Amino acid sequence: MLNVNDINVYYGAIHAIKGVSFQVNDGEVVTLIGANGAGKSTILNTVCGLLHSRTGSIEFLGQNLGGIPAHKLVERGLAHVPEGRRIFQHMSVEENLEMGAYTQARASIEPNLERVYEQFPRLKERRKQVAGTLSGGEQQMLAMGRGLMSNPKLLMLDEPSMGLAPILVEQIFDIIKRLHQAGTTILLVEQNARMALSVADRGYVLETGKIVATGTGNELLQDEAVKKAYLGG
Fold it and tell me: What is the maximum alpha-carbon separation in the chain?
């Protein structure tokens, strides 16, 4: 579904991403793990067109994404739930969700809403509530629900557990498991490496802009170097 080949991304003179290549296959959960500053979010921002690579290519569903504006990628089935949630604070929950469906035919919005409310019953309870008054966990659910409103073929999640209490982190990862079981393909960037690898089919480990290890989620959970660096032993 997604084929990233030899991308090199710079912030001015800083070489942030160095020759990174990876794949996401249909129906998989693939995770990118690594320390702060390793380049995880930069890779997602490059895939979705907010940043640009000086080399290589990014192909989605067999089409090269080079030169396609970020907002056009949503129409092609690529949804990005950014770090920090970025919800519309002064709009209601339902208005936020409807904004996620801006590429969709009007007739599909109501069925999409119902599907999102099935996945996130808490949002249905708060559908008329101003989004900025939600808890952190509820705001993360809203950001994920808004991404799903575009009927994505690939859902990219950037640090969905950031800033959440442990019990809410478990809830968010339960939701990720349910989305996967329902057939959603997911590219997950996450600092909570143990949780990320526990739900992932495959993972890639990033250090200072390079991929230094790859394997199934279970293989990386058992890898001694990964355990020592990211799993607390």
Answer: 52
